[in-house]
Amino acid sequence: MKNRKLQKGEILIYKTSKNEVELEVKLDKETVWLTQNQIALLFGTQRPAITKHLNNIFRSGELNKDSVGSILEHTASDGKTYKTQFYNLDAIISVGYRVNSRRATQFRIWASKVLKQYLINGYAINEKRISEARSKFNELQEAVLFFQGQSRKELLKGQETEILNLLADYSKTLSLLEQYDKGKLQTQKGRKTAFVNREL
Fold first, then answer.
1. Is the dihedral of CA 67, 81, 28, 100 positive or negative?
2. How far is CA 139 from CA 73, 157, 170, in A?
3. How many Cα neighbours within 13 Å face the side chain of 119?
4. DSSP states along the chain
5. Can you give the pLDDT of all 200 residues of the chain as single tens digits?
6. Distance between CA atoms of 153 and 13, rounded to whole angstroms?
7. CA neighbours within 13 Å on the CB side: how many for 157?
8. Which end is more exposed in the chain, N or C (fewer Cβ atoms within 10 Å of the end residue's Cβ)?
9. Concatenated DSSP letters for 140-176?
10. 118 vs 37: CA distance, rounded Å
11. Is the CB of residue 9 less than 8 Å from the CB of residue 68?
12. Residue 165 in contact with residue 171, Cβ under 8 Å?
């Protein structure tokens, strides 16, 4: 698992050290998620016991049900997708310490390693985007410096407006590409794209 990049919504396999339990663990929203049935399997008990512990945890105010529970899509053995109540790591560990603290500790250690790797990968992806944006900005700076140097030459005298138009178009293009990369590019309804052929 060290060299794999973990993806949002990915399913991971968790096994206890003695292979007593094997679970498919959902990774989403920067935490791990299990259903009540999976929590029961993890801690070697029945689902009603998990329900009772979760209700006590919520009733006592130890955890807020809305912040540790979420309805996520789950593909069952019949191949159909169902919306199912899942519980995050905080809820899993709270139940675990009431039911089977040894397994809860093992699961917490495993989940912490998985989440650390997930967050590091997310950081690496963001660093890559920042680096790409920095590279585009550096290109624009180089273009400005180039045109400033060229504008002093006799050959380009009188073409300052065209040069500024070219820089403005280049800047708009970079802005549009960045919006597209981030999925924020919007088109106006009823407006057609027109291409203008400019000759310098």
1. positive
2. 44, 24, 10
3. 9
4. -TTPPP-TT-EEEEE-TTSS-EEEEEEETTEEEE-HHHHHHHTTS-HHHHHHHHHHHHHHTSS-HHHHEEEEEEE-TTS-EEEEEEEEHHHHHHHHHHH-HHHHHHHHHHHHHHHHHHHHHHHHHHHHHHHHHHHHHHHHHHHHHHHHHHHTSGGGTT-HHHHHHHHHHHHHHHHHHHHHHTT-----TT----------
5. 333 343 455 566 666 667 677 778 887 777 788 899 999 988 888 999 999 999 999 999 999 999 999 888 777 778 888 888 999 888 988 888 888 767 777 877 777 777 767 655 554 444 556 666 667 777 777 777 776 666 666 655 666 667 666 767 767 777 766 776 666 766 555 444 443 444 44
6. 66
7. 4
8. C
9. HHHHHHHHHHHHTSGGGTT-HHHHHHHHHHHHHHHHH
10. 25
11. no
12. no
Instruction: Quote the CA–CA distance of 69 and 159 in Å, as a whole number.
Output: 63
Cβ–Cβ contacts within 10 Å for residue 35, how many? Answer: 18
Distance spanning both ends of the chain, measured CA to CA = 55
| Per-residue pLDDT, 62 | 92
